[in-house]
Each structure stands twice: as C-alpha cells, then as structure tokens.
Amino acid sequence: MTILRHASAIAIKDLRSEFRTKEALNGALSFSIVILLMIAFAFDTGAELVSDYGGGILWLAFTFASALIVNRSFARELPNDCIDVLVSSPASGAALFLGKSIASFLLLVVIESICLPVFGVFFNVTWWRNPSQLALVVLLGSWAMACMGTVFSALTINLRLREVMLPMLMYPMLIPAVLSAMTLTNYLMQPGPLPPDYAQWMRMLVGFDIIFTTLALALVETILVR
Amino acid sequence: MRSKLVMLLGLIGGPLLLRNLYVILFQLPDEMEQGPVYRIFYYHLPAFLTAAACYLSAMICSILYLKSKDAKYDAIALACTETGLAFAAVNLVTGMFWGRISWGIWWAWDPRLTWALICWLVYFGYLMLRKAIDDPTERAKNASALSIFAFVSVAITWKAIEWWRTQHPGPVLSIRTGEQRMDPFMEQMIYMNTVALSLLAAIFILVRLRQEETQREIDALRRYAHAL
To answer: Is the pTM of this model over 0.95?
Structure first.
C-alpha cells in the first residue's frame, strides 16, 4: 500500500515539524481555552444550561481551534516553495491529502483531549457518562474538520486573504458535521437513555465523513497541480 | 444567435409568468387552513427548484471544466451559480414572509430553513473564492472543485424536508410523495410556475454568460496590451 506509506511519511513529517515549533498547537490550544473562558463569562454556567448547550459550547471551541490547525497544514509548505517539491514528488495528491489530514486530525485530538477536562472544570459538567461513545463522536467530528479543513487549506493556499477565506469557506461546509457532533455530545452528557434520533445524527456524521473524504481524495490532485 | 434565443425565451417566459400570476391571484381559491397567504408557495417552491437546477448545472459544468479545461464551462458554471443564488434568495425571502404571517416570526431555526441558508452561504463562498484569485486558470480550477463540494449541501437541503419532521411543511408534490396530497389544479400551477421561473433563469444565465465572456475578452486584451 504505497499510498498509506507515503501518507504516513507526510503525516510524521508534519507532526515532527509542528512539535518542533508548536506554532499551531500552542495557538489553537490557548485560543480554544480562551473561547471556553469567554463563553463562561458571557453566559450563566448553570447546570441546566450546560446540559442543554454543553455540546455546542465545546464544539464551538473545537471548530475555532481547527481553523488555526488546518490553516498551517499547507501554509507551512509555502516557504522555500516546499509545496512544489511535495506536489512533484512520487507521492500522489491523495497521499499528500491523507498525510496532512491525519497530522491535523492528531493535533486536533490532542487539543480536544486537553479542552474536555478544562470544559468539565469550568462548566462543572459530568462529560464522561458515555466515554466510548463520546470518544467516537469526538474522533468522527475531528476527522470531518481535519479532512474538510485540509481540502480548503489546499484551495486557499495561494490567496491573499487566506486567513479570512479559509474559515469563511470551511465553516458553512462543516455545519452538517459540527451540528451532528454538537447534538450527539449534548445527548451523551445528559443522564438517562439516549434519545431515538441519536442514530440519525450519528448516521449524518458518519455519512459526512465518508462522502467528503471520498470527494476530497478524488479532487485533491486537481486542486494541488498548478 | 444567442440574442435570438434570449428573445425567444423571453417571449415564452414573460407571458407565461403573467398568466400564472393572474391564475394564482384571481382564479385559484384560498387554501382551507392558511387562507390567501398560501399563494406565496407558488413562488417559494418553484424558486427553490429553479435554484437547485442552476446549482446542478453549475456542478455538471464544473466537472466538464475539470475534464476538458475549456474556459467556456467555467463561465457557464459561474453564470448558473449566480442565477441560482438569486433564486435561492427568492426562496428564502418568500419563506420568511410566509413564516411571519403563518408562524408569527420572520425566521425559525428549523433544520429545513437552516440548510437552505447554509446552502446559500456555501455558494456565496464560491463567489468570494473567485474574487480572491487573480490567475484565471487557478480561479477556474479551484472554483470548479468547490462547486462539486458545494452541491452536497444542495442534496442535504433537498432531503431535509424528509429527514427532519419539524415546523416546516413536509413534501407535497405527488412526484415526490407518490400520493395526491394537494388539489391537482394547485399542483399543476406549481409546475407551471417552475417552468416560467426556469425560463427566466435561462435568460439570466445567457445574459450573464455574455457579460462574462465580454469581461474575459477585455481582460485578455488588457494582458496583451500590458505584455506589449
């Protein structure tokens, strides 16, 4: 499986480069914690409100953090024209996309695993009622953000207003996935059995991941070649 | 040739729109529960169907552009997207007026309304992306890729009235439900107005296409002059 070998090499390169500088990681982590703080200041953090809107608050922070992470995904290849070398390397566009998506996904998971306990402390929420289900939702939601974000990072790499255009294009497209993840997280934080539409939202999240990963793999070569 | 086609479409579409307006206002009876306000529906649904057809055409042209690299397809995709956005705005605004009268609020965060708005925002992003790229080839390539991604949101909006049973009325057309849920004459009027609005959309697309082609010629001349 050459594509997987190439993808893992690119993912390791990106992670190594990120952990050396920690530019995106530190920025995204502190930004998401600041978002949680701002929401805690702006709204009454009573137990009733948080059990209804906890998922929304959490995913809002994750979504903002994701824009910072994926923005660096292709932007870090711009100095010294590294992107041209990567595109002309034997690795296919699909392998490049997969590798960069995996690296962004892992960075997002790191941020989320730090933000979750912080969210629990700030808002006094028992978020670990269904740990395995919650982990699944977090992983699926993070993959949606990493996958879409990487595609839009590639689309906006040469734009003058890249930092503005990336979230402007990415957020509306991400809404189905983020909305599903928010709703599922809300359900998982509430006591009692899961509601009947839980499966419907889960199908939506899984469907989003499958459809957009497939589309991205099919189109990324076209987007990258100049 | 294209001017004649625009004229022909106008000659068919204009009288048809006026005839439909007359029938909707003066010949069709009021709906039993909603009263006269239901007439907005004859523009609300056909506007969405027309917008969806424009978005579908834009996606097909984008795929054709990526396959052939023929700039003509990119220009058609742009014209279709802009026209689709205009009709999607008609769909949203007419829905808001209907909601104000029937529900007492301008906007409900109902999933079906929300998806229609998301869809509009996604295509608005398409136009923003085009504005942000200077190189014509790069612009056409990236916009084509985005148009293909964006069509997923149209598919979700299309299915939203079946997936979420909420405040927004469910599907009523017999071609979609498989049963007659509304008076056949009223349903026929929806199709007639969809045809009329589609003809209007075709005129908009052709006119916008001519503008775009002229703009591209001017840009090419400007580049040529600059090179000299």
So the answer is: no
Q: A209 contacts in B (CB within 8 Å)?
A: none
Q: Does the predicted interface ipTM exceed a cut of 0.95?
A: no
Residue type, A8: S
Three-class secondary structure assignment of A42-70 = HCCCCHHHHHHHHHHHHHHHHHHHHHHHH
Domains (ranges, CATH) in chain B? 2-227 (1.20.120)
**Residue closest to A73 by CA, chosen among A111, A91, A99, A110:** A99
Contacting residues of A for B121, CB less than 8 Å apart: 172
Question: Where along chain A do its domains lie?
Answer: 2-224
Contact A223 B149 (CB under 8 A): no
Distance CA A154, CA B2 (A): 38
Closest of A202, A58, A63 to residue A127, by C-alpha? A58
A223 and B145 within 8 Å at the Cβ level: the answer is yes
Q: How far apart are CA B152 and CA A161, in angstroms?
A: 25
Picking from A103, A109, A128, the residue whose alpha carbon sits closest to that of residue A117 is A128
Q: What's the farthest any 2 CA atoms get from each other in chain B? A: 71
Please identify which residue in the block is written with the tokens 């919650």.
Answer: A134
What are the phi and psi torsion angles at B31 (to 5°)?
-75, 145
Instruction: Identify the residue among A164, A220, A223 best suited for mutation to test binding to B, counting B beta carbons within 10 A and taking the highest.
Output: A223
Q: Count H helices, E strands: chain A?
A: 8, 0
Residues A113 and A115: their CA atoms lie apart, in Å, by 6
End-to-end alpha-carbon separation of chain A, Å? 26
B160 is written with which tokens? 């939203």
- For residues B141 and B71, what is the distance between their CA atoms, to the nearest angstrom? 10
- Cα–Cα distance list, A32 to A19, A26, A46, A67, B85 (Å): 18, 10, 21, 11, 34
**Which residue of B64, B85, B144, B146 to mutate against A (max A Cβ within 10 Å)?**
B146
Task: Spell out the residues 6+ positions from residue A211 whose beta carbon is closer than 8 angstroms to its own.
Answer: B152
Q: In this structure, is the dihedral angle defined by the CA atoms of residues A216, A217, A221 and A224, taken in order, positive or negative?
A: positive
Total residue length of chain A:
226
Whether A191 and chain B come into contact, CB under 8 Å, resolves to no
- 10-residue averages of pLDDT along chain B (228 residues): 87 92 85 80 92 96 94 95 96 90 83 84 93 89 93 84 68 69 78 93 94 91 88
- Least Cα distance to A76 among A110, A99, A109 occurs for A99
**Can you tell me the distance from the alpha carbon of B4 to that of B198, in angstroms, rounded to the nearest whole number?**
18
